[in-house]
Amino acid sequence: MRYVMSELVGGSGGKEFFDYIPPGNARIKVIHVFSNDYIDALQFGYLDEKGEMALLPKVGGDGGFAYQFVLDEDEYLTGISGRYGWYIDQISFLTNKRRSETFGGPGGISDFRLEAPKGHEMVGLFGRKEWYLDALGIISRRLTEEEMERCSSPHDLQKVEGIGPKIAQLLIENEILDLDDLSTTSVDQLRQILREAGAHFAMADPTTWPQQAALGAKGEWKKLAALQEELIRGRRVL
Fold it and tell me: Which terminus of the chain is more solvent-facing, meaning fewer CB atoms within 10 Å of its CB: N or C?
């Protein structure tokens, strides 16, 4: 299996560790965070071959209060963000559906955000550790087509006026998995995807899709509804 490694962020101390990854193709289901003023340690939980929860050893020190972040059945990690100084001071976990709460203390001098490439999931960590987590990087692997379809959000895409089940599936096949992805896709790229899918798809007008998706991704449903009503009224006038 081919892995992609990010840059390394954090302080210069600690001993190196590599390949903090669940075995096989197991997906991370829970992250135990041990923290106080800094991130003392992390521990990944995953489902083993029998479908039972298993834990990797903790990576980091022995201190800190215990917290946990549990992923949904159709959820996977896409990266981490936070702040660092001499150590990793704060950390949040990014997924295909949300951003976790922030764990750790108020310190740090630099912000960081490490994300898996598009169409990949974060499966592990590497870095340096001693009493705390001194530095971190993420390890990613490419999602299979089956995994992307299972963990995508076709119903979310259909909240955009002009997108039905077939167009939603077409967007997913082109790695536009949810409203957030759609909001950052250019209209020209959307038109190209539709044209390449055939004359029937090419009749769709994606001009407002990124704008609509941006409102939905932010949870601004009233503004989205108002925009869609305006679009519908415009078509009636025409």
Answer: C
Other CB atoms within a 10 A radius of the CB of residue 70 amount to 10
Question: What DSSP string runs through 107-132?
Answer: --SEEEEEEPPTTEEEEEEEEEESSS
Contact between 79 and 116 under an 8 Å Cβ cutoff? The reply is yes
Rounded distance between C-alpha atoms, residue 115 and residue 118, angstroms: 9
106-161 confidence digits (pLDDT tens): 999 999 999 998 778 999 999 999 999 999 999 999 887 666 655 555 557 888 99
- Contact indicator for 123, 140 with CB cutoff of 8 Å: yes
Q: Which residues contact 203 (CB under 8 A, 6 or more apart)?
A: none
Q: E-assigned strands of the chain?
A: 3-5, 9-10, 15-20, 28-35, 39-47, 53-55, 59-60, 65-70, 77-84, 88-95, 103-104, 110-115, 120-129, 133-142
Beta-ladder partners of 44? 31
Distance CA(192)–CA(5), nearest Å, equals 31
Please tell me the pTM assigned to this model: 0.66
Assess contact for 34 and 65: CB atoms under 8 A: yes
Structural domain boundaries of the chain? 3-143, 152-237
Q: Tokens 């210069």 label which residue?
A: 12
Give the pairing of strands 59-60 and 15-20: unpaired
Q: Which helix (H) or strand (E) holds 102?
A: none
